Amino acid sequence: MNKLELISALKTEASLSKTEAAMVIEVFFDRMADALARGERVEIRGLCSFQVKMYRSYTGRNPKTGIPVLIQDKKLPFFKSGKELKERVDQPV
Question: pTM for the whole thing?
Answer without folding.
Answer: 0.78
